[in-house]
Amino acid sequence: MSERNKIHASRDTSLNIAWAAHGGAAPGTASLAEEFMSRFIPPDTFRMTDSHPDIILFMSGGSERRAIELADPERPVLLLSIRGNNAYASATEVMAWMTNNGRIAILSDAADAAESGLLGNWQRVAAAWNKLKGSTAGLAGNVSEWLVASDVSAETLLGRFGISLKAKPWSGLPDFTKSSPDRALMKRFNGQDNPDLEDAARVLTLLRRVIRDNNLDAIAVECFSLVQERKVTACLALAQLNAEGAVAACEGDLASMAGMMAVKALTGSVPWMANTTRLTEKSIVLSHCTVPFDLVKDMTLRTHYETGFSLAVDGEINASKVTVCRFSEKLDRAFIADGRIISRPRLADACRTQVEIAISQESVRELMEKPLGNHLLLLPGNHGELLRLACRYKGIAFAG
C-alpha cells in the first residue's frame, strides 16, 4: 500500500453522534443516549459529541431548539428518535425545519433505522464521502473530444466531491517505450506468445509511475491518442489497475472517473466503465475493450475494436445481479438502476467485452430520454439502495 493510501485508510471514519432532550432532562440522559446507540452499532464505531454530528438522537420532546443548535449547516444529518417520550414528534418538527431551510437530513425511528439497514448504510455513506475529501485524481492527456457531456471541471470535482485534479498532457510524460514491461501484467499472461503484450505492459509501467510521482488516488487516461499514434492501447493497463483496486478510467472520462471513485469508496470495489451499446424495451447492452480482470472469466486477448491495433480484453462478466450507475457532468445528478445479466452477446459491431442487462422499463426510458452520458458503470451485486442514499447525502438528484 502506498503512503498516500495508508493515510486514506487511516482517516477517521467514526460517526459523530449528538443527543437532544428538553431543558429539564435528567443528568444521566447522556449515558442513556450512548447506551441506547450501543444496541445498534458497535461502540468503537461512534463517539458521543456536541460537535459536527452525523446523527442527532432525540431523547424527548421539547428538544427542537437544542437539535437545531447542534446541527452543522455543512454536514448532512440523520435524525433518529427513541420510542415514546414525544421524541419522534420533536424529530419530525426538526425535519420540517431542515427541509424549509435547505438542509440535508433524513428522519427515522432509531430501531427502525437499524432493522432496515438505514443506520448501517448511513455509516458507510458518511465514511465514504469523508474518504474522498482531500483525494487527488490525474488526467493523462485530455478528455476525448467526443465526450461532450463528460468533461467535469476541476472546480466541480473539488467543490462537489472534494477531489483535486492534476492534468498531465502526453507531451509532458515520458515515452512509454523507455519503460520496462510491468511484471504483474506479464505474469498474468505468462506463456502467451503475443508480440503486443510487452508494449501494453510498458504502458502500465508508465501509468504506475505517473500515479506514484503525483500521489494520485485515481487516473483518467486519454487512450485513443496512444493507439492512433503509437499503435498501442491502454486497455490491459487499465484492466490490471482496476483489478488491483486502483481507479483508472479510459478516454479521459472525468465523470466516469469521479463515479468510479465514489463507488469504490462506498463498496470497496472498482466498477466497470462501459459504452451504452444498445437499448431494448427491457434491457441494455454494455460493451468496452477494457474491464477489470477480476470481473471476468474465460478471458481472451483480441485487437482493439475501433482500430484493429494492439490488445483489448474480451471476457465474460462473472456476475448475475448488477448495479448500473452514472453521474452527470456537473456531479449534481445520477442514474442508478439495479438489474440482472440475461445474456452475454457476441456482437461483431461492438467493443470486445459485452453484456446484456435486464433493467426496469422506467430505467430504460430514463436512458433514452434523459441520459447523463454514454459511459455507464457496472458493479456486481444490487447496491442501488446504498447509492441512492449516498446521493441524498450529497444533495444529488437521482433517477432510474
Characterize the structure shown.
With 400 residues, the chain is of the alpha/beta class. The protein folds into two domains: 3-131, 3-Layer(aba) Sandwich (Rossmann fold), CATH 3.40.50; 133-399, L-fucose Isomerase, Chain A, domain 3. 36% of the residues lie in helices and 26% in strands. It contains 14 helices and 18 strands. The protein has helices at residues 3-10, 29-38, 64-70, 87-100, 110-116, 118-132, 154-161, 183-188, 197-213, 224-230, 235-243, 254-267, 361-369, 384-394, and strands at residues 15-20, 46-48, 55-58, 77-81, 105-109, 135-140, 163-168, 218-221, 247-250, 272-279, 283-288, 296-302, 312-317, 321-327, 333-343, 353-358, 376-380, 397-399. The strands form four sheets. Strands 10-11-16-15-14-17 form a six-stranded antiparallel beta barrel. The two termini are 36 Å apart. Mean pLDDT is 93; it is low at 1-11.
List the helices and strands and how they pair.
Blueprint: H1 3-10, E1 15-20, H2 29-38, E2 46-48, E3 55-58, H3 64-70, E4 77-81, H4 87-100, E5 105-109, H5 110-116, H6 118-132, E6 135-140, H7 154-161, E7 163-168, H8 183-188, H9 197-213, E8 218-221, H10 224-230, H11 235-243, E9 247-250, H12 254-267, E10 272-279, E11 283-288, E12 296-302, E13 312-317, E14 321-327, E15 333-343, E16 353-358, H13 361-369, E17 376-380, H14 384-394, E18 397-399
Parallel strand pairs: 1-2, 1-3, 3-4, 4-5, 6-7, 6-8, 8-9, 15-18
Antiparallel strand pairs: 10-11, 10-17, 11-16, 12-13, 14-15, 14-17, 15-16
Helix pairs in contact: 3-4, 6-12, 6-14, 9-11
